[in-house]
UniProtKB/TrEMBL annotation:
InterPro entries listed in its UniProt record: SRAP (IPR003738), SRAP-like (IPR036590)
Keywords: Covalent protein-DNA linkage, DNA damage, DNA-binding, Hydrolase, Lyase, Protease
Pfam families in the cross-refs: SRAP
Source domain of life: Bacteria
Protein name: Abasic site processing protein
EC number of the protein: 3.4.-.-
Top-level EC class: hydrolase
Family per record: Belongs to the SOS response-associated peptidase family.
UniProt source species: Arcobacter roscoffensis
């Protein structure tokens, strides 16, 4: 269940999606290395708009923000009233450079960064809707990431992960009316394509947002003990 994201470079995604982007409303990306829920993230909607959205899904009929969801389970997305209509008519792609998960051992939480082994980004399947924000007196686009069971590599840390789309499936995900075809895209991403490594506990701080968030922790090797002399 990715609750923290890193999105700092969308150039490759824009190039791969240029045939699908009608209006680039993001422009020059604001680099973010530790994005929590309720903050803006870019997404390509199935209406062709590439824009900033609210990280946290609220259906248009929601009466309060207490019903916000940052994730939607792929196994039950069509059964849930909250997500059903969005799944049918309002799908999107969220280009993330990586996400964080925490390994819990003896009540200690160790953060790990998860990214694609070769590609610059992970194209995460999502759903969106418009919610009337009273404080702003306007509609805002809200979204949720779709999740599935974790692959073997990530499963050692967490049991869920985002649904990652292959480039060849971008158009199908955004445009297809065949829900069986769309459902077939809910695949577990191959373990061999993912890299994960431990990062600094600074990531635990919601307001800490620097490039160092994604730097690998290099643990010092213990100094070898000198051999004891018998004389």
């Amino acid at each position: 269940m990715p609750g923290r994201l890193a999105i700092f470079d969308d150039k490759s995604f824009k190039e791969d999606s240029k045939h699908l982007i009608k209006n680039d409303m993001v422009g020059i990306l604001q680099k973010r290395y530790n994005i929590p829920p309720t903050t803006p993230i870019p997404a390509l909607l199935n209406n062709g708009n590439y824009l900033y959205t609210h990280f946290g899904f609220l259906p248009s009929w929601a009466t309060s923000k207490s019903s916000m969801n940052i994730n939607a389970r792929s196994e039950s997305i069509y059964e849930k009233k909250t997500f059903r209509e969005a799944f049918r008519f309002k799908r999107c792609i969220i280009p993330i450079n990586g996400f964080y998960e925490w390994q819990v051992e003896d009540k200690e939480k160790t953060p790990f960064f998860v990214k694609d082994m070769k590609e610059d980004y992970l194209a995460v399947a999502g759903i969106w809707d418009e919610y009337f924000e009273e404080q702003l007196n306007m509609n805002i686009v809200t979204l949720a990431l779709i999740t599935c069971d974790a692959n073997d590599k990530l499963g050692e840390i967490h049991h869920r992960m985002p649904v990652v789309l292959e480039k060849k499936d971008f158009s199908t995900w955004l445009k297809s009316d065949d829900l069986k075809e769309v459902n077939s895209l809910f695949k577990i991403y191959d373990s061999s394509k993912l890299e994960l490594y431990e990062v600094s506990s600074d990531v635990n701080k919601v307001l800490f947002d620097k490039p160092s968030c994604i730097e690998k922790v290099v643990k010092k090797q213990p100094e070898p003990r000198g051999q004891l002399s018998l004389f």
